[in-house]
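Hi all, long-time lurker, first post. I run a small reading group and we've been trying to get comfortable going from sequence to structure in the token notation. Rather than ask abstract questions, I figured I'd post a concrete chain and ask someone more experienced to write out its structure so we can walk through it together at our next meeting. Sequence below, copied exactly:
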Amino acid sequence: MKSATVLALGGFMRLVAASPDHFQSVSSVWCTDAPAQTVTVTELYHPDQQYNSGSKVTITETVPPVTVTQSVTLGGSGNEVLPTSIMTAPSSSQTFHVDVGTFNGKVQFVPDQLNASIGDVVLYNFLAKSHSLTQSNFATPCTYNDGFDTGLNQSNPRNISGLFQIPFQVKTTSPQWFYCKQPGPPNHCGLGMVFGLNPAGKMDQFIKNAIAQNGNASTSVSPSSVTSTATTFITSSTTASSTNGITTVTVGLNHGKVLVFDPPFIAKACAGDRIHFDFRATNHTLTESTFGKPCTKIAGAMIDTDFNNVNLNDIPNLHPFDFTVDSDRPRFFYCKQKNGTPEGHCGKGMVFALNVDASTFTQYGHNANATLPKIKGRQLA
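-- Answer (accepted) --
Happy to help. Here is the structure in token form:
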């Protein structure tokens, strides 16, 4: 038998002969069949050979198992994409099927949980429009844990079933947790688009954890605001208080379209409290300033993250920053992106404060608006 090249076509295997003189056609073979199979090979010879045109010889041979490769992120310290094999499943194992898409207006995995044994394969069928299977932890469902990740590479706007099918081979019976990292809006994980493999009765809580972590990550901001000639300044989307705990502040909303710290101020933060800043798209800073000069870095500033928290894909908690409050004194901060230009984030109201009331923060925002460049006495929007 001539040497042959293996091609993967839509989940089937086909052998194509390497010889230029003739070709071989082989009956289609499923990837998940037994390790070795008997297949019928029909050789059609080139008319220039000694055989008459149209002559053919049928040969029955046993071929070894075939492996198809698919690129997914398997984990590690970086974001490298490594090859993994769609292995031929042992005859005693099972193959489970999970659809990933939108059903009755809801983004979800169907089913959203299942129990599987070691050696089983879960085949994920990605439907419209674009989703991922990304591994996380039970307590933080919407944060990638450096495990399995398909990425958002399965764009399927026409909702064609079978267009993208990615297998996951079960190697442990311990609970494993996954989510869709599509940021939207709306954020899919925040809507409860999560999946549990051997969830051990904890699936309902896992969904609640996802909604609690990212439930408002991409919802529309409807704050009270004060209109100025320069911009609409957000004064309050959430007035958070923190008492001997941790407060999360999201830096930038809606894929970078809303320049805001959310919440924009914390009315009361005590010494020992921790503030967790989740920097979102695209690139922002947390830089300390003063009430009178909101967009100018304070001399000897203890806090300035600079431009070290870039997040092009709006991934939650990709490059967070935490600091511990040292006293209950008022403190003022801003984003220095494009500072001093008509597009400066600070001048457009991207400021943050600790231990101030709403009135003080509103005035602080107006002070920031006033720093935008002027032309002929008129501020640029």
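A couple of things your group might point at:
The helical segments are 203-214, 358-369.
The longest strand covers residues 37-45.
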